Amino acid sequence: MNKYTDDNMRNIKNITTKVAGEYLGIPPMAVAIGLREQKIPIGYAIKRVNKWSYYIIPDRLIAYKNGKLDQCLIDGIEKRLDEINNNFILLKDDLLELLKNK
After folding, report:
1. CA neighbor of 6 nearest in space, from 75, 53, 67
2. What average pLDDT is seen over the chain?
3. Which of 17, 21, 44, 69 has the most C-beta neighbours closer than 10 Å?
4. pLDDT digit string, tens, across residues 41-50
5. What CA–CA distance (Å, rounded) separates 34 from 32?
Protein backbone atom coordinates (compact mmCIF):
# COMPACT_ATOMS: atom_id res chain seq x y z
CA MET A 1 0.00 0.00 0.00
CA ASN A 2 1.19 3.50 -0.84
CA LYS A 3 2.17 5.37 2.32
CA TYR A 4 1.59 8.78 0.72
CA THR A 5 -1.79 10.26 -0.17
CA ASP A 6 -2.68 13.28 -2.30
CA ASP A 7 -3.22 15.28 0.91
CA ASN A 8 0.24 14.26 2.17
CA MET A 9 1.79 15.57 -1.03
CA ARG A 10 0.00 18.91 -0.69
CA ASN A 11 1.36 19.34 2.84
CA ILE A 12 5.02 18.43 2.20
CA LYS A 13 7.09 21.60 1.92
CA ASN A 14 9.91 20.12 -0.18
CA ILE A 15 9.07 16.93 -2.06
CA THR A 16 12.21 14.92 -2.76
CA THR A 17 12.69 12.52 -5.65
CA LYS A 18 12.57 9.70 -3.07
CA VAL A 19 9.17 10.78 -1.78
CA ALA A 20 7.85 11.42 -5.31
CA GLY A 21 9.10 8.00 -6.39
CA GLU A 22 7.39 6.27 -3.48
CA TYR A 23 4.18 8.18 -4.23
CA LEU A 24 4.30 7.28 -7.93
CA GLY A 25 5.53 3.73 -7.35
CA ILE A 26 8.76 4.21 -9.32
CA PRO A 27 12.44 4.43 -8.28
CA PRO A 28 13.72 7.85 -7.15
CA MET A 29 16.33 7.75 -9.91
CA ALA A 30 13.53 7.41 -12.49
CA VAL A 31 11.99 10.59 -11.09
CA ALA A 32 15.36 12.37 -11.19
CA ILE A 33 16.14 11.31 -14.76
CA GLY A 34 12.57 12.07 -15.84
CA LEU A 35 12.90 15.61 -14.47
CA ARG A 36 16.37 16.10 -15.99
CA GLU A 37 15.19 15.00 -19.43
CA GLN A 38 11.81 16.75 -19.11
CA LYS A 39 9.98 13.42 -19.55
CA ILE A 40 7.98 13.70 -16.30
CA PRO A 41 6.26 17.11 -16.19
CA ILE A 42 5.95 17.36 -12.39
CA GLY A 43 8.59 20.05 -11.83
CA TYR A 44 12.09 20.79 -13.00
CA ALA A 45 15.75 19.95 -12.48
CA ILE A 46 18.59 22.44 -12.23
CA LYS A 47 22.20 21.42 -12.79
CA ARG A 48 24.67 23.11 -10.53
CA VAL A 49 28.44 22.63 -10.80
CA ASN A 50 28.60 19.01 -9.60
CA LYS A 51 25.05 18.42 -8.41
CA TRP A 52 21.45 18.37 -9.58
CA SER A 53 18.67 20.11 -7.65
CA TYR A 54 15.01 19.19 -8.12
CA TYR A 55 11.83 21.17 -7.57
CA ILE A 56 8.66 19.10 -7.61
CA ILE A 57 5.34 20.97 -7.79
CA PRO A 58 2.78 19.17 -5.59
CA ASP A 59 -0.28 19.92 -7.76
CA ARG A 60 1.49 18.69 -10.89
CA LEU A 61 2.69 15.54 -9.13
CA ILE A 62 -0.83 14.73 -7.93
CA ALA A 63 -2.37 15.50 -11.32
CA TYR A 64 0.28 13.35 -13.06
CA LYS A 65 -0.41 10.38 -10.79
CA ASN A 66 -4.17 10.72 -11.21
CA GLY A 67 -4.04 11.19 -15.01
CA LYS A 68 -5.25 14.80 -14.85
CA LEU A 69 -2.06 16.64 -15.73
CA ASP A 70 -3.54 18.25 -18.83
CA GLN A 71 -6.19 20.05 -16.77
CA CYS A 72 -3.59 21.11 -14.20
CA LEU A 73 -1.39 22.59 -16.95
CA ILE A 74 -4.38 24.29 -18.60
CA ASP A 75 -5.36 25.87 -15.27
CA GLY A 76 -1.80 27.14 -14.83
CA ILE A 77 -1.71 28.58 -18.34
CA GLU A 78 -5.06 30.33 -17.81
CA LYS A 79 -3.79 31.83 -14.56
CA ARG A 80 -0.61 33.11 -16.23
CA LEU A 81 -2.62 34.54 -19.15
CA ASP A 82 -4.84 36.41 -16.70
CA GLU A 83 -1.73 37.84 -15.02
CA ILE A 84 -0.29 38.89 -18.38
CA ASN A 85 -3.59 40.51 -19.36
CA ASN A 86 -3.78 42.42 -16.07
CA ASN A 87 -0.18 43.63 -16.47
CA PHE A 88 -0.92 44.70 -20.04
CA ILE A 89 -3.91 46.75 -18.86
CA LEU A 90 -1.76 48.45 -16.22
CA LEU A 91 0.94 49.24 -18.79
CA LYS A 92 -1.67 50.60 -21.21
CA ASP A 93 -3.13 52.83 -18.47
CA ASP A 94 0.36 54.09 -17.56
CA LEU A 95 1.11 54.85 -21.21
CA LEU A 96 -2.17 56.72 -21.66
CA GLU A 97 -1.44 58.74 -18.53
CA LEU A 98 2.04 59.62 -19.79
CA LEU A 99 0.69 60.65 -23.20
CA LYS A 100 -2.04 62.73 -21.59
CA ASN A 101 0.49 64.65 -19.50
CA LYS A 102 2.68 65.58 -22.51
Report:
1. 67
2. 87
3. 17
4. 899 999 988 8
5. 5
